[in-house]
Write a structure and sequence with these properties.
This protein is an alpha/beta fold and about 525 residues long. Helices cover about 40% and strands about 25% of the residues.
Length: about 525
């Protein structure tokens, strides 16, 4: 009996080890593929940003000659083209065209007779033509790409994207005409992809694409550029052998010592931070929404999403505490992503039916680093079929101390169509400089100033000054903490349209209760 029991235990242990090893291998492989996909997506996003900078430079060159300060193809105009070519890292030659002919260029000078242009490879809107694989006189008849529009042609540098080369990764940069569903490659390797898949930016493999490759696509929202990145799965597995062996070994140990692993996992998961991360992964947090009311009309103009969480003992945690904890430990991005997905999912239909309403979502400054938040917002807004302008992203004032790193990110949010608000204004590092430099849409005045209305507090005089500042800078205003009719009347007497939040008009509530606030306060002032 003992021998059989030992044999059964040995067989079970062997099966557990084998199953654990197999599971570990496939988990390791999936981790490699997931990491590679994320890296490829980030790589593609960076290439898109570079392509957008490239596009802006080409637009600047075209504007320099439309109108031109010099006579067409005069020595002064040719000198201007030579100077711009010399200064550019992205453009190898600039020319002037008229009636389908190249009349002069920085490198070749005045052409007599003018050169007849070939048929364009792609015609974009506003008279922009793309010529691909054109023999270039300036490069010993090597072929290149020319962008022509507004009577100005520019030869693109064949090395413009070379500094973006990465080991084990390939890329393809295309100029795309969405109307005609045509594309022309201007840089990188030729990758066999489907244009419909590229434009969709899906992570799943498109039709006709090699099953031995991982692909990611990203398209610009401000220029007709799309980028596809790719990497070989065989190379990833070869390079990731150490990772696969580690996962396999860990899987074997897990299969053999399951009880010990469970015990260790339990001990590791006791802390608050682990509970919070686990709650985020399992989507155990909830959202409530506080109505935003416009004064003096008292119409509901939107709502702010507020996250709530109770730990595994059922004790409600203060939002300020666990949000700060997530920021400190570096997983605030996971919390923000959960709030974005859940809020748009819960309120999307309301926003779709009421395009005048706005959903405010709090974010951290670190959320604006990289492309993750931008990609998530774009995905969720498209799925919900709402306008980006219906989403307002609120940054706390303390997040605005590093203006240099935020300026470009806020500009990018504006280019996508989102609103940007400064939350808790007046409680942190107030200055005219950051409001001007960051070019936000609105400021949200902290409740500490609302409480001084009608009192003799020293800070009571600050609120009118903030309102005057906002009016001077043409910023919208949202006032927090309006809890009495006297406070509301005071704000109405200021003589400008503004938005308010507070228990006078509504406590935070679930999404399904929000529709009742639309138009409710035209006749009523309290709930």
């Amino acid at each position: 009996m003992k021998r059989r029991r030992r044999l059964a235990i040995a067989v079970l242990a062997l099966l557990g080890t084998l199953l654990g090893a197999a599971s570990g291998y496939w988990l390791g492989r999936a981790s490699l593929m997931r990491t590679a996909g994320s890296g490829l997506a980030s790589y593609a996003g960076g290439l898109v940003v570079h392509a957008e900078e490239y596009s802006r430079e080409l637009s600047g060159i075209q504007k320099a000659f439309n109108p031109s300060p010099f006579q067409f193809c005069s020595p002064d105009e040719i000198a201007k083209m030579q100077a711009l070519t010399y200064e550019s890292l992205q453009v190898k030659e600039i020319g002037r065209t008229r009636n389908g002919k190249l009349e002069c260029s920085a490198f070749l000078g005045r052409l007599n007779p003018p050169w007849q242009e070939r048929a364009p490879s792609l015609v974009l809107g506003q008279g922009v033509n793309i010529y691909a694989n054109v023999p270039l006189q300036i490069a010993g008849l090597a072929v290149g790409t020319i962008v022509e529009g507004g009577g100005v042609s520019a030869v693109l540098s064949p090395t413009a994207f070379d500094h973006w080369n990465r080991p084990g990764m390939r890329y393809m940069v295309e100029i795309v005409d969405r109307k005609s569903h045509q594309a022309v490659q201007i840089a990188g390797d030729k990758l066999d992809t489907d244009l419909g898949w590229v434009l969709s930016e899906r992570s799943t493999r498109g039709p006709g694409m090699a099953p031995t490759e991982i692909y990611r696509a990203r398209c610009s929202h401000v220029s007709p550029v799309c980028v596809v990145t790719a990497s070989s799965t065989a190379m990833l597995i070869e390079d990731g052998k150490a990772v696969l062996w580690e996962y396999t070994a860990l899987g074997s140990i897990a299969g053999f010592g399951l009880c010990l692993a469970i015990g260790q996992f339990y001990l590791r998961s006791m802390g608050t931070a682990q509970q919070l991360r686990r709650a985020i992964r399992r989507e155990k947090l909830s959202l409530v929404y506080q109505p935003v009311i416009e004064l003096p009309s008292r119409h509901c103009s939107g709502a702010e999403a507020l996250v709530r969480w109770s730990d595994e003992d059922g004790v409600a945690a203060a939002p300020d505490f666990f949000v700060h904890l997530a920021e400190e430990l570096g997983f605030i991005g996971e919390l923000t992503a959960f709030v974005v997905r859940r809020a748009i999912a819960e309120v999307g239909e309301i926003l779709r039916k009421n395009p005048e309403l706005t959903l405010s979502i709090n974010i951290a400054a670190s959320d604006l680093e990289g492309d993750a938040l931008f990609l998530l917002l774009d995905e969720q807004v498209k799925q919900a079929r709402i306008a980006p302008g219906q989403i307002a992203l609120e940054l706390t004032e303390r997040s605005t101390t590093d203006m240099d790193s935020l300026r470009c990110a806020i500009q990018r949010l504006h280019e996508y169509g989102y609103q940007v608000h400064i939350d808790d204004f007046g409680s942190g590092f107030s200055s005219l400089a950051y409001l001007h430099e960051l070019a936000v849409d609105a400021i949200k005045i902290d409740r500490i100033f609302t409480r001084t209305i009608g009192t003799d507090a020293i800070t009571a005089s600050i609120l009118p000054q903030i309102l005057a500042l906002a009016e001077t800078l043409q910023l919208d205003v949202i006032v927090e903490g309006v809890e009495t009719e006297a406070q509301a009347e005071y704000l109405i007497q200021m003589g400008r349209t503004m938005q308010v939040q507070g228990w006078l008009f509504g406590k935070p509530t679930v999404a399904t209760e929000l529709p009742k606030y639309k138009g409710l306060f035209q006749a009523e002032t309290v709930l």
